[in-house]
Design brief:
Elements lengths: L1 H17 L2 H14 L5 H25 L7 H11 L7 H4 L2 H22 L3 H42 L2
Helix pairs in contact: 1-4, 1-7, 2-3, 3-6, 3-7, 6-7
């Protein structure tokens, strides 16, 4: 019983960091279509860096907290999550759709939980947990995007100031 609970908690932790990114990605792209003359295009280009920041926060959390053993499935998901740090590289940062494809693995777990959750009475509680997790994940990814946008704005202002 205890190993299953630990694996479930680790799975929720992964979802809390990465499952909300596709929602943010979609929101930015819809914002670009609804407000074509606004600066949503600049937000779009910052999305992979925000995803990399979220991955960095996940790795920091793993270094300071994760000492529990995990199952092979969780290990594979964690390795997949660690690969998100590669979006700091400029070559991958320009590939928007690679970041969304990477995060769809975690979003797919939420979708799988929703589909299978309706089949069992305890599944409804799992769905409720997942909805809370995906909301928190969306907020975390939004905060990451806001942080990256603020850093880009400060960098741009400093460049304008010192290049005069």
């Amino acid at each position: 019983m205890v190993p299953e609970l630990i694996a479930y908690m680790q799975r929720l932790e992964l979802l809390a960091f990465f499952a909300g990114y596709p929602l943010l990605f979609t929101l930015v792209f819809i914002g670009e279509k609804v407000f074509p003359h606004h600066r949503t295009n600049s937000f779009r280009s910052l999305l992979p860096a925000a995803y990399a920041l979220t991955a960095t926060l996940f790795i920091i959390r793993q270094v300071f907290y994760a000492s529990d053993p995990f199952t092979p499935t969780i290990l594979a998901l964690k390795i997949w999550a660690y690969l998100a740090i590669l979006f700091w590289l400029p070559a991958l940062r320009t590939r928007l759709f690679l970041s969304i494809l990477h995060s769809l693995v975690f979003f797919g777990l939420i979708v799988f939980d929703i589909i299978t959750g309706f089949l069992t009475p305890s599944g409804r509680d799992e769905i409720a947990n997942d909805m809370k997790i995906i909301t928190d994940s969306f907020l975390l990814n939004t905060a990451s995007l806001a942080t990256i946008a603020a850093a880009a704005f400060i960098k741009r202002c400093m460049r304008r100031t010192f290049n005069r």
